[in-house]
Design goal:
10-stranded mixed sheet; Histone_AcTrfase_Rtt109/CBP; HAT_RTT109-like; EC 2.3.1.48; histone acetyltransferase; transcription regulation
Length: 353
């Protein structure tokens, strides 16, 4: 199924009549000057994606930013897709329409990815990522570091595809302690039957960290590796030192996740670089200038952003999902009304005297 179909499916259980406008924006596919993984001899291509969800009455509700890497042979045959979820953000979370929508958006995106996809997440708590000044909005719930790690662990556990997953909290060596520290144990987290979770990372512990760890944009691992290029660290040493870094140390709890989607389908396509444009960057810069500090500013900034989208992108980058109460719910309500004055077969209505 397409991303739109998956999203329609995930949003279908919202009980309130709602119209969602979805803006699925992306840059053109470009070839990277260096491989995603240093020791790889394959080519790396990158597409930058931003998905924004809005309603007419609220404006933007949430957004998802990802970097989509495609690894191919020198002949252009696709070998693997690597997805880095860079930012997830909300504007407001106290409206009935917005509850749980961010998670549904992420699940729909993940379940629509092509075969042979690996997904990476760095969970680090910050008050805002995509929507400027939204941290001051009293209607927005900002998760702390422990709650955010727990939230990601629970969410990725809901992906409906058979998968193998790794998760790791720097500075915590065993899963029981990590579950306690993140609060996931208190929330009764248990691995889904179709996902094989392992605590730790997928990289060989004795390998050189710079050779095997992917170099993502806007990622703590990449920044730390670049700052320590002269140090020949093993993977094991890398994680030990990272636990004391500015981003992952000082009492903060952060989480690294990797999920390999075990799709049975084989990738058969080839890849080709697309003509470069600055359309995506132009809109991104405009979005970063907007203000989302309260309900009025969210709606006004959304309208400004949509005007910008319509002036830059064609209509294929947006679609609409209308959610109506399920017919089953209506039928149940009707059947309850109809059953009020019905007597069972063994009872006789007493005649009034």
């Amino acid at each position: 199924m397409s991303f739109q179909q998956h999203l329609e499916q995930h949003l279908s259980n919202i009980s309130k009549d709602t119209t969602f406008n979805v803006y699925n924006l992306n840059s053109n596919l470009s070839k990277c000057s260096s491989p995603l993984i240093k020791r790889s001899s394959d080519d790396t291509y990158l597409r930058h994606r931003l998905i924004l969800l809005s309603t007419p009455s609220i404006g933007f509700i949430c957004g998802l930013e990802t970097y989509e890497y495609t690894i191919s042979s020198k002949e252009g045959k696709i070998k693997q897709h690597v997805i880095y979820i860079s930012k997830v953000d909300t504007t407001i979370t106290d409206e009935a329409t917005t509850k749980g929508v961010t998670g549904k958006l992420i699940l729909a995106y993940l379940e629509s990815l092509p075969p042979q996809s690996s997904v990476f997440v760095f969970a680090r708590a910050k008050p805002q990522y995509l929507f400027a000044h939204s941290a001051t909005n009293t209607g927005k719930t900002v998760l702390g570091d422990r709650d955010l790690v727990s939230w990601w662990l629970h969410l990725l556990n809901k992906v409906s595809i058979d998968s193998t997953g790794w998760w790791f909290v720097p500075g915590i060596e065993d899963e029981p302690s990590a579950l306690i520290e993140s609060g996931a144990r208190k929330r009764n987290w248990k691995s889904a039957q179709h996902i094989q979770w392992k605590y730790g990372t997928s990289y060989p512990p004795d390998a050189q960290a710079a050779d095997v760890i992917p170099q993502f944009e806007d990622d703590a691992k990449s920044r730390f590796l670049k700052d320590n290029l002269e140090d020949d660290m093993s993977v094991s040493n890398f994680w030990e030192v990272l636990a004391f870094s500015e981003e992952c140390g000082s009492g903060k709890i952060t989480g690294f996740f990797e999920l390999r989607l075990n799709c049975s389908e084989a990738e058969t396509g080839s890849i080709k670089e697309e003509e470069s444009t600055d359309d995506f960057t132009k809109f991104w810069n405009k979005l970063m200038e907007l203000d989302f500090h309260d309900k009025e500013s969210i709606l006004a900034s959304t309208q400004t952003a949509i005007q910008e989208i319509e002036s830059i992108f064609d209509s294929s980058f947006r679609f609409q999902i209308k959610v109506e109460p399920k017919e089953q719910t209506k039928q149940m309500e009707n059947s309850k009304r109809a059953a009020v004055n019905i007597l069972s077969a063994g009872l006789i209505k007493r005649k009034k005297v």
